[in-house]
Amino acid sequence: MSEPNGSRIPVAVLGATGAVGQTFIRLLAAHPWFRVAEVAASERSAGKPYREAAHWLEGQLPDDVGSLTVQPCDPGLVQSRIVFSALDSTVAGDLEPAFAKAGAMVLSNAKNHRMAEDVPLVIPEVNAAHLGLLAQQRRSRGWADGGGIVTNANCAATVAAMALAPLHDAFGVTRVFVVTMQAVSGAGYPGVASLDALGNVIPYIADEEPKIERELNKMLGRFDGRGIVLAPFVVSAQANRVAVEHGHLTCLSVELERPAPIERLAEALSAWSGDPVVCGLPSSPDRPLVVATRPDRPQSRRDVNAGRGMTVTVGRLRPDPLFHVKYVALGHNTIRGAAGGSILNAEVLVRQGVIGA
Ligand SMILES: NC(=O)c1ccc[n+]([C@@H]2O[C@H](COP(=O)([O-])OP(=O)(O)OC[C@H]3O[C@@H](n4cnc5c(N)ncnc54)[C@H](OP(=O)(O)O)[C@@H]3O)[C@@H](O)[C@H]2O)c1
């Protein structure tokens, strides 16, 4: 274990001007271990001061970042060895490996590399052991020293994975039916046109359902020392865009291999604190999962910021006439589902001595 106890580690944010990039900037401004030294985005933004390039949405823009000049996403120009990526998926596919090849640890939010066999798809409370894939990744890809790619999942899949992990561990999940209600910030900035979003529900989010259906099996799978053995359950997902600013709400119906009374399932969810590797890390919430007791919770407006946006709130646990149990889970899409999740992954890697020395 090697946690920094002196100066903060310089980091870069790629895609720093977008919705997730801005959440990175806000969360890192107050971070005790990391300092935003470099910001990068497209050619449209490169060369401008960050405060001009970003359409800032996150409250007070930190002064030191506002005056940084936005760089192009060129691994030859970016000096930081820890690189948080909030890049659009149209460019992340090529750019993220280019940074890893040059020796940067890339903590990615894009879909492109999540399902690659040698790339960890990580929520550390759920599957920190998957970080063991990094050694293999470095060997097989020939990255320069220190290079690598660690991804976090689709934001709705992250919320569902955290809500399913305790039940899968204790009772074995065999089938999942999940319906999501996803906030507009999940589409980035400017995202969904206001006349499409306001007063409306859009029952389609491009490519979202397949991501949820495949990523859950990888995240809840097991690292056997060589690769990930996928969790053997079936997932059916339906994704909807709703007129909410932040927070993805997921309604889950779950079949279990070893069914148990609702009270025992509720106990398993309340008692879960996940892998202790996260204990005491700066971005780790007191509780990764909270079970709401009121019958009308969780609600996006009231619960999205639980645990500074890092806690997933579940509720409405009840018997399901189709499967065994149905319930609701809510999480913050740009924090737990994106920037906050990546920062927590980086903190684990620093704690494990993989990066930041
Ligand atoms: N929003 C969420 O809740 C969420 C959650 C989980 C994962 N994600 C994923 O996170 C990534 C960012 O999402 P977002 O919502 O922040 O999107 P966004 O608001 O559209 O931001 C995209 C960012 O990518 C940059 N970019 C676009 N084209 C580029 C290019 N050719 N070269 C370099 N940079 C380029 C943009 O820079 P310019 O400003 O210069 O154009 C901007 O900084 C996506 O892969 C998304 O799928 C998003």
Strand content: 15-25%
Distance between the termini: 11 Å
**Spans of 5+ residues with little confidence (pLDDT < 50)?**
none
Largest sheet: 7 strands, mixed
Give the SSE order as H and E letters: EHEHHEEHEHHEHEHEHEEEEHEHEEH
Record the SSE blueprint.
Blueprint: E1 9-14, H1 19-29, E2 34-41, H2 50-53, H3 63-66, E3 71-72, E4 82-85, H4 89-101, E5 105-108, H5 124-127, H6 133-141, E6 148-151, H7 155-171, E7 173-182, H8 194-197, E8 201-202, H9 208-219, E9 222-223, E10 228-229, E11 234-242, E12 248-256, H10 262-271, E13 289-291, H11 300-303, E14 312-319, E15 325-331, H12 335-351
Parallel strand pairs: 1-2, 1-4, 2-3, 4-5, 5-6, 7-11, 13-14
Antiparallel strand pairs: 7-12, 8-11, 9-10, 12-15, 14-15
Helix pairs in contact: 1-12, 7-9
General description of the model:
By secondary structure, this protein is of the alpha/beta class. It is 31% helix and 22% strand. It is built from 12 helices and 15 strands. The chain has a 7-stranded mixed sheet. It has a 6-stranded parallel sheet with strand order 3-2-1-4-5-6, with helices on both faces. Helix 11 (300-303) links the parallel strand 13 and strand 14. The mean pLDDT is 97. NADP nicotinamide-adenine-dinucleotide phosphate binds at residues 15-21, 41-42, 44-45, 73, 86-89, 91-92, 109-111, 155, 185-186, 188-189, 333-334, 337-338.
